[in-house]
Amino acid sequence: MKFKKLLPIALALMLCTSAGVYAAGGADAQSSDTAVYTLNLADYLRIATTTDPSPSEVSYGTEYSSATIDTAMTGVFKVISNNRTQDFYLQGTCPTSGSSNTPCLYGADGDCKNLKMVFTKTDNPPQSTSVTNITGGSPATGDNPDAIGFNLTITSAREDGPDESLTAVWDTNKVKYTMNNGIETFTCTVSGSNDTNTFSTHDTDGQYQATLTMTETAI
């Protein structure tokens, strides 16, 4: 009969013990967790010419005293970057004897929106001294044959991205730009008459040329 009395007590202890185990949970119990998804965006930079300048004829002043571009020549570059801060350069070159990329930009103003650029003859390029005589700041017509300086105007426009933060500084013989992520266009126009003391009868007939290059790395 003692067994009958002990059975209810044993069952009650078992229930109490089981309830305690379920209430506390297992050693690895947890009520939440997370899964982290990560994307890596690589650097993106695209510099492209969207408008190529058309060739222009040149009109002469009385007795070959000046050269004036008949139709303004305009080229447009578009820069697209996702870099928070992106540096790139605008450089000008022209052909000289033994070289196709002699630096030819000069005379930049404070914000580099107004510069000058030297054009040289293509079929019989002059010596590089014809160019450096002009870019050096003290041109003399007898010392720069087959090289002519003209005005270059640059305007920029923001097409997309956060608030514009574009800076331009003169870097020896080129323009260094720094911009925030976004899309920027640069319109580069050559027009008007020759720079003083860069045109004379020392400049022979033929085709003259200069090239603008926008690039991430300075040439």
Please describe the structure with a list of short key phrases separated by commas or semicolons.
10-stranded antiparallel beta sheet, two-stranded antiparallel sheet, 12 strands
Largest sheet: 10 strands, antiparallel
* Strand residue percentage: 35-45%
Unreliable stretches (pLDDT < 50, length at least 5) are: 9-13
- What's the rounded overall pLDDT mean? 91
Helix coverage percent of residues?
10-25%
How would you characterize this protein structure?
This protein is mainly beta. The protein contains 2 helices and 12 strands; from the N terminus they run αβββββββαβββββ. The strands form 2 sheets. Strands 1, 4, 5, 6, 7, 8, 9, 10, 11 and 12 form a 10-stranded antiparallel sheet that branches. Strands 2-3 form a two-stranded antiparallel sheet. The longest helix has 23 residues, at 2-24. The chain is elongated. Mean pLDDT is 91; it is low at 9-13.
Topology of this structure?
Blueprint lengths: L1 H23 L20 E7 L6 E3 L6 E3 L3 E24 L2 E5 L1 E2 L7 E8 L6 H8 L11 E14 L5 E6 L2 E18 L16 E2 L1 E5 L4
Antiparallel strand pairs: 1-4, 2-3, 4-5, 4-10, 4-12, 6-7, 7-8, 7-11, 8-10, 9-10
